[in-house]
Amino acid sequence: MGSNSTSTAENNCNVTHLTFQYSLYATTYIFIFIPGLLANSAALWVLCRFISKKNKAIIFMINLSVADLAHVLSLPLRIYYYINRNWPFQKALCLLCFYLKYLNMYASICFLACISFQRCLFLLKPFKARNWKRRYDVAISAAIWVIVGTACLAFPILRSAGLANNTESCFADLGYKQMDTVDMVTMVTVAELSGFVIPVIIIACCTWKTTISLKQPPIAFQGISERKKALRMVFMCAAVFIICFTPYHINFIFYTMVKESIITSCPIVKSTLYFHPFCLCLASICCLLDPILYYFMASEFRDQLSRHGSSVTRSRLMSKESGSSMVS
């Protein structure tokens, strides 16, 4: 990390330059970019164009795919920086890419919680599902974007310290603005509660409720297969949440305290700083796991993708055949 982003604890423990993170970030983002771009583009195409039923959390899936695409499209610039270790572009572009990373993370967390909650609610109260309006999901999604988008502005603001004096640095090498203790505690508490604790409680409760519902007798408009589909969806949301976002939010508390020199124990400082890049890489992998959620957990998505994928293949084959017959 650059000198602007080091704290007293880092200097005392001689952990001021983690060289391995450059190759780690570059490798991870290269691995994610092409599959993530293709999978989320295909998912967004199918979800928006071919699925007429907008219940079963489809609106939230569309927004989740948009959040993933926003991060995926910024990955080439991240790859360039971590390979060359130089930022030749405008600093505003650096901060925008940095911002999109956290926007993707917290928007994904919110939409995963919404998907779990809605599938569980509609499973337990099927009559409510029949009366639910599409505009409700649209309004909830718009509110999430506004709230999360505003809250995530804190990340580029805190990490833009010293950027005017060192315009060749970006991402992991951005400076870190020291905060007042009260402000730091408030920010960490709000981020952990709203971005991790509350969503994980929602997802855990939905998983438990959905599991319990399998032991109850079927009710109107709902068979055992529908309950199993809902359970798979909720379980997948929980898996994505645990794999991608739990490590970061556990480490985030220690990382902030290390940066503020509240934690000075060298073993904790070193383990926290070394673990941080791996946590951010895991958070980015959600761009690959979310399309799996759409494909394997939503029967409508699977049916439409296979149907329209085969029709596109047939039309291309027919055009090639007609073209070859004209040549012959």
From TrEMBL:
Question: What Gene Ontology terms for biological process does this UniProt record contain?
Answer: phospholipase C-activating G protein-coupled receptor signaling pathway; positive regulation of Rho protein signal transduction
**Chief place where the protein resides:** membrane
Keywords for the protein's UniProt record, in alphabetical order? Cell membrane, Disulfide bond, G-protein coupled receptor, Glycoprotein, Membrane, Receptor, Transducer, Transmembrane, Transmembrane helix
Q: How does it sit in the membrane?
A: Multi-pass membrane protein
Where found, per UniProt? Cell membrane
Q: Which residues cross the membrane?
A: 24-47, 59-83, 103-124, 136-158, 193-212, 233-254, 274-297
* Xref: InterPro entries: GPCR_Rhodpsn, GPCR_Rhodpsn_7TM
| Native organism taxonomy | Eukaryota, Metazoa, Chordata, Craniata, Vertebrata
A single Gene Ontology CC annotation of this entry is: plasma membrane
UniProt entry tagged with the keyword Disulfide bond: yes
- What job does the chain carry out? Putative receptor for purines coupled to G-proteins.
| Coiled coil regions, renumbered to chain | none
Q: Which GO terms describe its molecular function?
A: G protein-coupled receptor activity
Q: What is this protein called?
A: Putative P2Y purinoceptor 10
Q: Which PANTHER family match?
A: G-PROTEIN COUPLED RECEPTOR, P2Y PURINOCEPTOR 10-RELATED
**Domain named G-protein coupled receptors family 1 profile: residues:** 39-294
